[in-house]
Amino acid sequence: xxEHSRDPDALFxxxxxxxxxxxxxxxxxxxxxxxxxxxxxxxxxxxSGEAYTIGVTGAPGAGKSxxxxxxxxxxxxxxxDVAVLAIDPSSPFSGGAILGDRVRMQDHATDAGVFIRSMAxxxxxxxxxxxxPEAIRLLDAVGWRRIVVxxxxxxxxxxxxxxxxxxxxxxxxxGWGDSVQASKAGLMEIADVFVINKADRAGVLQTQxxxxxxLDLSGAAGDGWRPPIVTTVATELAGTAPMWQAIVDHRRFMxxxxxxxVKRSVRVGEELQAIVARRLELRARExxxxxxxxQLGERLARRDIDxxxxxxxxxxxxxx
Length: 320
Description:
By secondary structure, the protein is of the alpha/beta class. 49% of the residues lie in helices and 12% in strands. It contains 14 helices and 7 strands. It has helices at 8-16, 20-32, 34-44, 64-77, 101-104, 131-141, 157-160, 179-185, 187-190, 204-218, 240-257, 259-287, 292-301, 307-315; strands at residues 52-58, 82-88, 114-120, 146-151, 167-172, 193-196, 229-231. It has a 7-stranded parallel beta sheet with strand order 3-2-4-1-5-6-7, sandwiched between helices. α3 (34-44) crosses α6 and α4 packs across α11. The relative contact order is 0.11. Mean pLDDT is 83; it is low at 91-98 and 123-127.
């Protein structure tokens, strides 16, 4: 294995055969980016397109990891395998994920039908890294047909997950039903399924009524799908069967209506746009040699130049 530890082609061949350590190494290479990540994308893309991706998001403390752990257990009882990407805040020191997958979902981390991996948001708590869609595609290509992406639930990442998932599950707790907070988080717009976790606490019915009212006001069934509201107590493994059924129902609706194909097409287009923007940014920084970048910042601080003109100067060498 040592000679193959950094060879994407060899690792990909081993991962196709079910080698988990090779798959883990491939995910690490995807996270690092560069030529290896591009090679992996080239290998994975033609083999992808079969997996169904489920986003699990919501505010910190909602119990997303415990709920994901319970969902894994339920899928295993149905003899369905599942891969999980846990998107964690990046370490300011190493750039890696702070929380380890075995800590978050240790009950199933070593089960044969489960692959769990933590990924860092690369210092951008406001959004998923470009590596996330590539990692999803990689898992898809080597045969994982159900992929759960769980976000840390900080800032814009809650909304970004909707662009990376076929079905988005928004997890809330009793007493959460503050319409202003919900509007700010954008949760009403991205939710395909609502889960009220910790439903053994007081306030469940009121939270359900609040969500129903907000769905009524938002006209959520305008496209033919009204997000169902499921109650769970993840610590007791209660409610995971109805939650999974809601996901299955949404998948059926998306497939039958043609919305799944449309959504995936839009998703790939947005990914292309993000990759082009990122490469232009990196190329511009490469060409902005010496102290030129700092000098532009100083000129901006003095109001000698406006941001758009500064951007023109940076992008001029790349013809943008």
